[in-house]
User: Which sequence fits this backbone?
């Protein structure tokens, strides 16, 4: 009779089984984690399909897409460190923070943009004659009539609005095609805008345009000396289709404060100045623009991406700004005045005797600001 | 006789330490098996492997005809266990504890649960304990409750680890009688203990574990079988040596060991020689002697390595 | 098995003590509100606390918002961390497993029991909040429903519907904590250790969430979408973060339960 040799092998089998048991089970878990962890990356790698559309045609498509109705969810990330004054924090936040917005767009004069924060929101409902702004945090509804000149507001940062605005005045020579990518789960065609003006502080703007509708889905603005985008706004979700009318409409809810907004401080100040400084037709090589309804004391120069604004400031605003400028680490102080650049946005404060404070700001280089100041001798600039 | 517990080359390794080192247990139906060993000899690890709590490094375990740990769901309901100290939910009464335990596994029908609980509480002497929460129990009462939990499903096999721990002498006798009664009714008992006396009084078979190895496994009757010598108690040991020259193997005070397995014959010789005999018996080794002979020094000792 | 676990949990005095403590804070807040008449402005302090003077029933939600960031997760971590490690420490685990209660089944039953605890706790906090709000706080006259975060009016029925959904979502948000607690609970024999482990994860998650440098991993943090229950009160409901929150909790539960299973079913029970 043979020896019961079964003991050795069977013992090994049991040992193997237990080891396989533990290792196998952990293997299953590891595989599960690996699959789950790679899912977002896999989705991100979905290839975008390009289309043979010329840059000019694509730009035309964007300009023609103003009536495309949609609803969506957008996020804008600003990389700008604007010198902040207490009165302008909301503007500064727009350019330096992450802003998430919900959008319902029935048309340029009928839409709603909600800026969503973790515990509240601020909604802007646009209708034919003006806007209702609802601030949950203050339980306040504000009615504003359309004004020719307003400070930047969250709706202006939506990719569709910003993309259209920046491309509207671009020339064919300035735009070129730039591949494709997926934005908000849609194929987006790249359109690159390189401003021709020497004064411009913007190196380039990339607009990613929905292949099907011509709607800009993402806009990235790059400064002259920065590889990271100074502003990146994009849709995260987008549904093409007209949202319901009751979604964009607004009536102040029970128990809320209702007020009617006045005009912007800057505009008021310009109107108040009895003797505004006369502004030339061209500043730093940028031609003056005519805007209906804007007081003559305010000057807007340039086109498209490259803009320069000259405006009188209310003294209390100027005081805060002067402190903020002085505290800014990158501020340049010379004979022309104090000026500072935050990404592509440059700012200069002039305080000529007898005229009240003026601000020069825009998407221009610091040198261009100095040049502009020099062309305004009445504001204390040295020619 | 059918096997109730069989292990083959059972090994449990913790890193380099072999806590259980290739043991081959053989417990048969109807045994009261005494599993002896010093603290740290691997008793508890072995019991836990039998019950599927610790997974063996290698080797096989067969419990009531099923391969453990895989067959646990099938065979464990037929096993009652008391593993080291009893444990229960302190805020609940003993009755509720038993009900919860019974409900958390298979083969504990709820229809008979109430009846079974009343019965086992009666058996272990806790029938009158009422709704008192277990945290108000004494150690002995908890031990009884643990035993009640083991008996709840009329198991074919009882695996008990130090079941009389914490009991007073009356309690120990009571539990011993209960176990003997269960054994008579056909339950196989696997009793792990370091109390030699307890094992000697209860068990029919003995296994001795020493440093992870099973150094002895035998019927108790065989281990303590007469050695073929007779022990004589006498006030005059020297005269015994004279009378039975050559047959005396040892003298220890008034105790004289004489070769010869017939005490009557030895008695006759001594009486005829006029030697007073105050006691006479067949010589049997005690379990203690057997165990000490088989096992080495206590594993609690830590010798300096040279 | 699940019934057994539920009985164990809810017959335990500590469970109810935890729930009572959890309710103490919102009640205290309500009393202070009534005594001082100082409601925080909307957007400040816990969500919805500002609205309770307009609609006292909303105190149910405010109560949840008060306990959500800290109290509720701690309670859940305590109960989940205790699930297996507590049995191990008490020694009952070996009796359960020798009974035999299958290890996988025990794990699932434990998770279900923790879930039940979360649900019961959240509902009790909401109900107590509702009664405290409606009995203590004087409502301002003529109010039917309420105002959404978006400034639209909600009917009483819509409000109730959304409140119920929000309560469900808060309960779901606790799943990740519960899963962490349960997983750690299978790793150690010390319930305190398991609880601290789960809390450490939470604290780390909350901290990383506020850190810009951690923004690439922010969407995967277990606490990332906790506050999204506010989104139920936007109009229309903002489902984006809510669905993400639910999916994320599902992923955490799946992964951690799998890890707990892999560990627990191959583990030597030496307690």
Assistant:
């Amino acid at each position: 009779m043979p020896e019961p040799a079964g003991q050795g092998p069977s013992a090994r089998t049991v040992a193997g089984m237990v080891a396989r048991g533990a290792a196998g089970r952990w293997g299953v878990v590891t595989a599960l984690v690996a699959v789950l962890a790679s899912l977002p990356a896999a989705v991100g790698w979905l290839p975008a399909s390009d289309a043979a559309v010329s840059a000019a045609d694509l730009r035309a498509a964007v300009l023609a897409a103003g009536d495309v109705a949609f609803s969506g969810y957008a996020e804008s990330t600003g990389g700008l460190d604007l010198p902040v004054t207490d009165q302008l924090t909301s503007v500064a936040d727009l350019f330096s923070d992450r802003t998430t917005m919900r959008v319902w767009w029935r048309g340029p004069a009928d839409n709603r943009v909600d800026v969503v924060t973790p515990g509240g929101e601020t909604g802007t409902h646009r209708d034919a004659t003006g806007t209702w702004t609802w601030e949950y945090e203050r339980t306040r509804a504000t009615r504003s009539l359309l004004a020719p000149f307003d400070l930047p507001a969250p709706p202006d940062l939506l990719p569709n609005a910003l993309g259209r605005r920046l491309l509207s005045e671009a020339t064919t020579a300035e735009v070129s095609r730039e591949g494709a990518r997926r934005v908000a789960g849609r194929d987006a065609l790249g359109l690159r805008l390189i401003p021709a003006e020497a004064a411009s502080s913007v190196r380039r703007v990339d607009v990613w345009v929905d292949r099907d509708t011509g709607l800009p889905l993402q806009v990235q603005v790059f400064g002259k000396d920065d590889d990271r985008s100074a502003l990146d706004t994009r849709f995260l979700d987008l549904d093409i289709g007209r949202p319901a009318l009751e979604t964009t409409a607004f009536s102040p809810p029970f128990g809320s404060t209702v007020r009617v907004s006045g005009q912007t401080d800057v505009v008021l100040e310009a109107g108040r100045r009895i003797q505004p400084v006369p502004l030339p037709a061209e500043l730093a090589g940028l031609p003056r623009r005519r805007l209906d309804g804007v007081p003559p004391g305010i000057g807007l120069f340039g086109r498209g991406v490259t803009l320069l604004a000259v405006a009188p400031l209310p003294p209390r605003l100027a005081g805060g700004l002067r402190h903020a400028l002085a505290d800014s680490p990158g501020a340049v102080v010379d004979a022309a005045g104090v000026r500072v650049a935050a990404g592509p946005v440059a700012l200069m404060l002039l305080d000529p005797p007898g005229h009240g404070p003026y601000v020069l700001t825009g998407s221009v280089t610091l040198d261009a600001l100095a040049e502009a100041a020099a062309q305004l001798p009445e504001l204390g600039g040295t020619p | 006789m059918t096997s109730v517990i069989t292990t083959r080359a059972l090994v449990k390794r913790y890193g380099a330490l072999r806590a259980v080192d290739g043991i081959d247990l053989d417990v048969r139906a109807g045994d009261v098996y005494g599993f002896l060993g010093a603290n740290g000899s691997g008793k508890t690890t072995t019991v836990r492997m039998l019950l599927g709590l610790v997974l063996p490094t290698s080797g096989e375990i067969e419990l009531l005809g099923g391969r453990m740990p895989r067959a646990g769901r099938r065979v464990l309901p037929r096993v009652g266990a008391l593993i080291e100290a009893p444990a229960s939910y302190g805020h609940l009464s003993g009755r509720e504890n038993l009900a919860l335990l019974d409900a958390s596994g298979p083969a504990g029908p709820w229809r008979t649960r109430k009846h079974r609980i009343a019965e086992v509480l009666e058996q272990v002497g806790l029938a009158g304990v009422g709704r008192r929460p277990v945290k108000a129990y004494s150690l002995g009462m908890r031990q009884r409750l643990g035993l009640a939990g083991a008996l709840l499903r009329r198991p074919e096999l009882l695996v008990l680890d130090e079941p009389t721990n914490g009991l007073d002498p009356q309690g120990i006798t009571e539990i011993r009688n209960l176990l003997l009664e269960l054994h008579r009714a056909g339950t196989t008992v696997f009793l792990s203990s370091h109390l030699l006396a307890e094992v000697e009084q209860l068990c029919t078979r003995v296994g001795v574990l020493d440093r992870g190895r099973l150094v002895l496994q035998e019927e108790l009757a065989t281990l303590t079988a007469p050695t073929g010598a007779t022990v004589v108690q006498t006030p005059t040991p020297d005269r015994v040596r004279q009378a039975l020259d050559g047959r005396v193997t040892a003298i220890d005070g008034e105790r004289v060991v004489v070769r010869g397995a017939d005490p009557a014959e030895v008695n006759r010789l001594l009486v005829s020689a006029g030697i007073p005999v105050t006691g006479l018996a067949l010589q049997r080794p005690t379990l203690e002697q057997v165990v000490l002979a088989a096992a080495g020094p206590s594993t609690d000792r830590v010798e300096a390595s040279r | 098995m699940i019934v057994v676990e539920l009985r164990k949990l809810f017959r335990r005095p500590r469970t109810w003590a935890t729930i009572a403590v959890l309710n103490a804070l919102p009640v205290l807040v309500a009393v202070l509100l009534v005594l001082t008449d100082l409601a925080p402005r909307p957007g400040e302090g816990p969500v919805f606390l500002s609205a309770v003077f307009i609609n006292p029933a909303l105190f149910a939600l405010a109560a949840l918002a008060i306990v959500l960031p800290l109290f509720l997760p701690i309670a859940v971590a305590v109960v989940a961390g205790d699930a297996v490690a507590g049995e191990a420490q008490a020694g009952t685990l070996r009796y359960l497993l020798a009974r035999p209660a299958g290890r996988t089944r025990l794990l699932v039953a434990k998770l279900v029991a923790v879930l039940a605890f979360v649900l019961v706790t959240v509902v009790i906090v909401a109900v107590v909040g509702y009664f405290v709000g409606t009995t203590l706080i004087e409502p301002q006259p003529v109010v039917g429903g309420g105002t959404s975060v978006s400034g639209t009016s909600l009917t009483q029925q819509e409000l109730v519907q959304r409140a119920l959904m929000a309560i469900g979502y808060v309960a779901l948000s606790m799943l990740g904590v519960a899963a962490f607690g349960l997983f750690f609970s299978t790793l150690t024999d010390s319930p305190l250790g398991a609880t601290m482990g789960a809390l450490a994860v939470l604290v780390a998650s909350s901290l990383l969430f506020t850190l810009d440098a951690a923004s690439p991993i922010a969407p995967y943090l277990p606490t990332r979408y906790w506050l999204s229950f506010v989104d139920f009160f936007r109009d229309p409901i903002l489902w984006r973060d809510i669905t993400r929150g639910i999916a994320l909790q599902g992923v955490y539960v799946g992964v951690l339960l799998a890890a707990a299973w892999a560990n627990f079913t191959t583990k030597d029970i030496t307690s």
User: Anything to note?
Assistant: Chain B has a mean pLDDT of 87.
